[in-house]
Amino acid sequence: MIDALTLKLSNSVSLTGDEKNVLQKSITKVVDLGKQANIKREDEKPDFIHLLLEGWACRYKTLENGKEHIVGFLLPGDLSTLHATILERMDHSIRTLTPVKLALIPQERINYLYLHYPNIARALFWSTLVDEATLREWLVNQGSRPAVIRLAHLFCEMLVRSRAAGLTENHSFPMPLTQEELGNTTGLTKVHVNRSIRQLRMQEMIELNHRTLTILDWERLQEFGEFDATYLHMPRIEAQLAPQLSRKIS
């Protein structure tokens, strides 16, 4: 059940069989939720740490006019904010983007792991630091890059993260996001998103069919999107991708 989590954490540490078993036993409940279901709303009191087992979810903020802005994605193996239950209220909302399977972990169990399993604690801190680094990169991406480059950068990130979650097949991975959701992520209108996707297709860097994104030219897309995967801190995944995607697919 925790395979996606241990696969992700393996980028930081190697967990023993006993440590994996302890993580498994930390889960108190597993729930299935449909698409567009709220996991937690802003201002609600957090109660559990949420571990995504299957599907996609997102963190988002709601503006005064009702418009949403997506501030992060959750893929299999990702945890909701590890220390959220220390706070009195959520400062953002979390909802599903696809049907998901979600595991619930009590905060006191996380505290126990910190005290008694330093290797797990290190891995969980690594996960939090990667989340923070990703948010910083998103701020730069939205504030400093043109529309089509923003989207190219996001697609590069999604390939690396999907690979880490075990979701890729050759050069392809699921892309369940609508153009509106891509716009809410990158600060672009649907018109700009559509135009940017068309440009990336015309330049033969990507294909997007039936909610599956295929990277046709990894090196070009990285260069065009000004993408440096260092902030994701997954050198093992980078090494796996490099020989597979180093040349254009014919």
From TrEMBL:
Alphabetized UniProt keyword annotations: DNA-binding, Transcription, Transcription regulation
CDD domains, sorted: CAP_ED
Keyword Lipoprotein: no
Database matches in SUPFAM superfamilies: cAMP-binding domain-like, Winged helix' DNA-binding domain
Keyword Transcription regulation recorded: yes
InterPro entries registered for this protein in UniProt: cNMP-bd_dom, cNMP-bd_dom_sf, HTH_CRP, RmlC-like_jellyroll, WH-like_DNA-bd_sf, WH_DNA-bd_sf
Official protein name in the record: Crp/Fnr family transcriptional regulator
Domain HTH crp-type: 145-219
GO biological process, one term: regulation of DNA-templated transcription
Superkingdom of this protein's organism: Bacteria
Pfam family, one: cNMP_binding
UniProt source species: Pistricoccus aurantiacus
GO molecular function, one term: DNA binding
